[in-house]
Amino acid sequence: MFLHIDCNSYFASCEIATDPSLEGRPVVVANVNEAGGGIVLALNKEAKALGLKRGNPVFQVKRVLDENHVAVCRADHKKYRRISQQLMEAVRSQDLVLNFVQYSVDEFFGELPVDDAQAARHYIKLIKEHIEASTHIPVSCGYAPTYTLAKVATHYAKLYEGYKGICVMMPENREVALRKLPVNEVWGIGRQLRKRMMLLNVVTAWDFASMDPNRVKQEFNTQGVNTYRELNGQPCITIDRGGLQSSIMQSRTFGFMIDDREKLAAEVRKFASDCSIKLRAQKGECGSVSVFLATNRHRTDLAQYHNSASLKLTKRTSDSVALMKAAEQLLGQVYKPFFQYKQAGVVLADIRPEEGHQLDLFTVEVDEKRRKLMEVADRINEKFGSGTVEFK
DNA sequence: TCTGGGGTCCTAGGACCC
DNA sequence: TCTGGGGTCCTAGGACCC
C-alpha cells in the first residue's frame, strides 16, 4: 500500500504560513512580470469561492481582485522549495513513513508498514498533524495499493469534507471509487488521451480499468498500459528522484517585447548563468546547451516566429562563462531581426555527475582554477544574496 | 498595456552500420 | 519494372505532470 501526500493550494498556503495576516482573506499567487502581466498559479478556497481559477490572466480578473480585496502575492519559488524541504524533514524525523520520496514541489509518496485500514488511518492522522504543526501547510493524504490509486484516494480526501483530508482506499473500495471518477481525472490521462477515451466510449476511470487487457495494449502506449495496470492495483510506476535532474531550464516571458539582439543576448547570458548555478548546486556537468526564442503567440496581428538551436559540447562543463558563451553563440543561430520577441530560454541537458577530467596537465590546471573561481562565486552569492557576483 | 515556468518519459524517423 | 534485412543510436517533438 502506498501513501500520497499532497499540499492543499500549495503556493497560497506557503504565503499564508509566512504571513498570518492573510489568514481568512482570499489569496491568489501569480507570476507577475514588470508590466503587471501574469497568470494565477494558486488560490486558497476563499479566492476559489469568488470564481477565480488557476490560469486566469491577472489583467482579465483585475476587477474581481480589486472589488473583493484579494491579496495578490508574487510567486516566490525559492520559498516554496524551502518549505517543501522542511516538510520532507518533518516527515523523515517522525520515522513512520518508509521509502519517502518527493514527486514535485508539493507532492510526496511513501509506504507504511501496515495493511489494515484502521491502523493506516491512525498513522496517517499522526503524520498529517505533525506536518501541519511543523510547517503550517495543510495537506491531504491518500492511501491505496498503487501510486495512481493513492492519487485517486487523495482526490477524494479533498472532495469530501467529512474525510477530513484522509482517504484510505482498500482493494474492496476500488470499484466504487473508480466508478465515480471521470477518466480524465486519472493521473497520466490528459487532453489527447481523453479524446481517444471518448471515441472508445470510456467515460469513467472504471470503464478504463475494466477494459480488456489486449484491447488496452492495442490502443495505448506503454504509459497508458501502466496507468491501466496501476488502476487495477498492480504497481508499475516508479519515481526515480535519486539521481540528478536530466535537464535544467531557465526561461522567461518578458513584460515587453524585444527586437534588439543585444538586449536578448543579455537575457540569454543571464539564463545560462542561472542555469549553471543550479547545475553546480547539484554537482553536475552538462553536455549540451539549447536556446529558444518565441514571439507573442497571442498577438495575431504580428508576424510569428519561434525556433531553437542546440549545441553539443566537446567536453562536459558547469562553467558559467563557457555556458554563457555557448548560449550566446546559439542565439546567433536562431535570432532573426524585425520580429518582436516575447519569450526566450536556455536549457542545459545531458547532465552527469561532475568528475575529474583525465586530460593533459595544462588543461587540468586551467580547469582547476576555473572550478575554484565558480566555487567562490557560488559561496559569495549564497552568503550575500544571489547576484552579488555575476559573470558578464 | 497585460496571457507562467519549470520538469519527465516515450515514440517516430533519420543516420549509420554490417 | 525490380531496389535485403537487420541492428543501434540520436534527436525532435508530443504528451503529460505540477
Question: Would you kindly provide a written description of the structure presented here, covering whatever features stand out?
Answer:
- The longest helix has 24 residues, at 361-384.
- The radius of gyration is 24 Å and the shape is globular.
- By secondary structure, it is of the alpha+beta class.
- A hairpin with a 2-residue loop joins β5 and β6.
- The protein has 14 helices and twelve strands.
- The mean pLDDT is 93.
- The chain has a five-stranded mixed beta sheet with strand order 5-6-1-7-8.
- The protein has helices at 10-18, 45-48, 62-67, 77-94, 117-135, 147-159, 174-179, 191-199, 205-209, 213-219, 222-231, 261-281, 320-334, 361-384, and strands spanning 2-7, 27-30, 40-43, 71-74, 98-104, 107-111, 139-144, 166-168, 247-258, 284-295, 306-317, 341-353.
- It binds a DNA duplex (18 and 18 nucleotides) through residues 10, 30-31, 33, 35-39, 41, 55-60, 62, 75, 77, 103-107, 187-193, 221-223, 245-253, 255-256, 296-298, 308, 310, 342-343, 345.
